[in-house]
Amino acid sequence: MIRIGVLTSIVFLVVQGGFFDKTLLVVVSGSMEPEIPAGSLIVVRERDEYVAGEVISFVSSNKAIITHRILRVETSGGKIKYITKGDRNEEEDRKPVYYEKVAGKVTNVIPKLGGSLITVRESTQWLTEMISRAILIDQEVSSGNNLTAGTMDLKISDDDEEAGDSLAMTWEGDGFRPGEGDVSADLKIKNSGTVAAEHIHVSVENSIGEGEGPGEDDSDPMDANLKILSLYYNKADIKSDLSDRNGNGIIDLDDWEKTPAEDFSLELTDLDNDHTLSLTVGLRPETSAADQGDMVETTFLVIGHQLESD
Questions:
Q1: Given 29, 60, 230, 265, which residue is catalytic?
Q2: 168 shares its domain with 277
Q3: pLDDT below 50 — which residues of the chain?
């Protein structure tokens, strides 16, 4: 999801641990307006627990201190996490906040006072630097320092096409009859970049073309009748990673399409080694006559991810 115009209530640390475990912070942006205007001085105090509706200050993944409201409290793997949002933002924050990242609950808000404190602090810092500056200065230069980001570059291949960024018709079959015939193929996936991934997500998109059969049955589309007979990754059976999302009693291509990409995660941590996804599909015996001549075009999307920190 692309997020545009999301405000973050970033705060400026003034005093920490000075008044009975309280921290004084200055809010320098407006995502919590009108309740907490930019330039406000806020008092933050640690609690043993925090509840939905409270405003907390926490340390984000990029080490900034953010002040947002708790929408709800969840537990994952025995750890408490908070789903937060700025009052002026339309969407909740992208990442949950774990308890150990919380600086405390906002207990007091003093509008406008924060701007004056920032001015005093910056003036004091400038004066300190001027007093300690040496009279004689000697300058040396280190040039030509090149810093290059690594790459994570997924490549895919099959039995008749070499590794590349896209393939055509890895799985292809026609003339299926209910309960008879199947098609099998392998999709080979590797990271040919310089930075190792942690896992991949594989999702599918199905496009149905109506044939010349006797009628249509929108409640029982063709992709819901293409049963996944077997599904392996690196020779390990992973069919159980999918579930019967359309409730027809089988695991089919429609179920895979309905599975969010983040719910179908496969390990891929090395470089330049093929990892094989093996799939066999067939037309289930109960397929309706309305599906005669119908065609399903399935696109497989493979997305690589590095391990994300909390």
A1: 29
A2: yes
A3: 1-6, 10, 12-20, 114, 116-124, 126-135, 309-310
> CA of 145: how far to CAs of 138, 141, 149, 151, 171, in Å?
21, 11, 13, 19, 48
CB within 8 Å of 212: residues ≥ 6 apart: 292, 293
Mark whether 166 and 51 lie in a shared domain.
no
Residues 110-159 have pLDDT tens digits of: 776 545 444 444 444 544 444 444 445 566 777 778 777 777 788 888 88
CB 57 within 8 A of CB 103: yes
Burial category of 95 from C-beta neighbours within 10 Å (exposed 0-12, middle 13-18, buried 19 and up): middle
Task: State how many domains the chain has.
Answer: 2
- The CATH number given to whatever domain includes residue 39 is 2.10.109.10
What's the Cα-to-Cα distance from 208 to each of 167, 222, 227, 291, rounded to whole Å? 20, 7, 15, 10
Please indicate whether residue 40 is annotated as part of the active site: no
**CA-wise closest residue to 182 among 278, 274, 247:** 278
